[in-house]
Design a protein that fits this description.
heterotrimer, A mainly alpha (119), B mainly alpha (325), C mainly alpha (163), A: mainly alpha, flat, C: 163 residues, mainly alpha, 75% helix, globular
Amino acid sequence: MLLVDWLYVAAFAITGLSLAGLSLALVWVLSPRAPYPQKRTTYESGIVPFGQAWAQFNIRYYLFGLVFVIFAVEVIYLYPWAIVFRQLGRFAFFEMLIFLVVLLVALAYAWRKGALEWI
Amino acid sequence: MNWWVEIAKAFLAAVGMFTFLAIVAAMFGVLLERKVGGWIQSRLGPKHVGPQGVLQTLADTIKLLQKEHITPRAADVLVFNTAPLIVTTAGLMGWLVIPFGTLWGKVLVVRDLNIGILFFAAMASMTVIGILAGGWASNNKYSLLGALRSASQMISYELPLGIALVAVAMEAGTLSTVGIVRAQDGWMGSFIFRQFPAFVIFLVAATAEVNRIPFDLPEAESELVAGYHSEYTGMRFSLFMLGEYAEMFAMAAMITTLFLGGWKGPLLPPILWFFLKMYLVVFFMMWVRWTYPRFRLDQLLNLSWKILLPAGLIWILISGYRITF
Amino acid sequence: MGTLMAFIILSAVTLVPAVVVVTSKNIVRSALSLVPTFLGITGLYVLLRAEFVAGIQVLIYAGAITVLILFVIMLTEGGTGVRVRQVNEQVPVGALVSAVLATLLIWVFLRTPWPQGPGTLPEHTAGQIGVTFLSSMVLVFEVTSLVLLISLVGAIIIARRER
């Protein structure tokens, strides 16, 4: 039954979070605490930290993220097709052929335009 | 059906699985890694705690439990503390759909979800969030750089992973893990034979997903001083490690289920077969780790986007053609 | 009864982080708060017996869109450590407007005679979706691939121009 299945999913999520949290709480009880300013500085190869790490980052990550989201959506469309195409015969195959060719065109375009290039 | 009984059973199963992962994946896994590493590099590995050093990781765990939690002053405390929990939980969730074998005619699986392998892929994708959150919250340049690298690597390899899953689903006609194992009949029925390219793609992508050498750029000790978990100490660090090893074992278990025929095998009991195959895959991943050097970031992304992804799509077309005609 | 309780809990899981998204002073925290919101919506899909959509919700929204949003935020000029106020002086007006809108929507929902026909749920929603795609929704399915292609082209062109 479906709802029971997902009850287990919820139980796994709650248990995972709480048991991991519990181990942190256990450490809080067990471990010593002796903070001093030098200990709480950010590690930066032994020198005094220079500015913050929360700086502006490169656009390349963003480009990869964009291409990824689009392809992830396309792969999602393959799942329902994959489990039923056997029963539907040739028509289903040619339909997916068109879909995948468009996908490959998209990949080729991204490739050609250098969106997959890490320079 | 009594809902309270089901809820109690669900939580018991979850606690049981967590304990199983902490012992088999994390403690035994780390020990195995060190022993295999020692063997490959002609040294002994851990030797002193317990007979042949088998209690080494237990001792390490007890030590880590007593270590101080150091939170950097610049860090975002709330996110900093939540991130390891996310990674650990994501590592645990995937095990929900793994079938361990059969016992008295019943399949040993926590829940055989209808969307089994899709669920597995979804849970694997949640690790990225934990790693990004942890790396950002540390407010350390190495950590954030490592987290961003890790995220771009993991999203890049999620696509080949998903495509390999689609190929298996095509062959089996179902998304449920138990159904996929049942579809692999006979001695040559394992999907590793019929779906060999998908197997290779999945293996490579799985190794990259769990950030292991040769895809360990996010943690590269020599350049990023452990990457996204530079600032994590004690138990919080070990939660990251637990999540990572749980994920790695889950990937090995998934490869066993998808391509190696799961629990099926002659003579020996099914559960034994499952663990035998799983440890074989785990050993292979360790072997790779102690043999190969690290990729460069551009090589790594090229491998995913320009080789694995097109190859996977074309392989789907080929399998579709073969199955239809 | 159990379903109602699950619905209330999941709504809280969806809505409380959603409030954090629009009120938090730090944008990365806002983005990360989207994750529990998406997961709560996953739970709501499960309550509707839409298992496959629930899986997609985790994979695409919680796993992919959030990462994309985080990447975008990392591009913020001046870095992500900045603290910004998300609300301005127009809070009372905004509250009024949203209250009116909420009342209106609830009123419409209560007044609409929702069709309640007898129907059967398919055993495997994913398979049923596949059959629909390959039979009555063929055109939609193929056009989807074109839409995705166009969005990829558009995304690349826009992102390139910024450089």
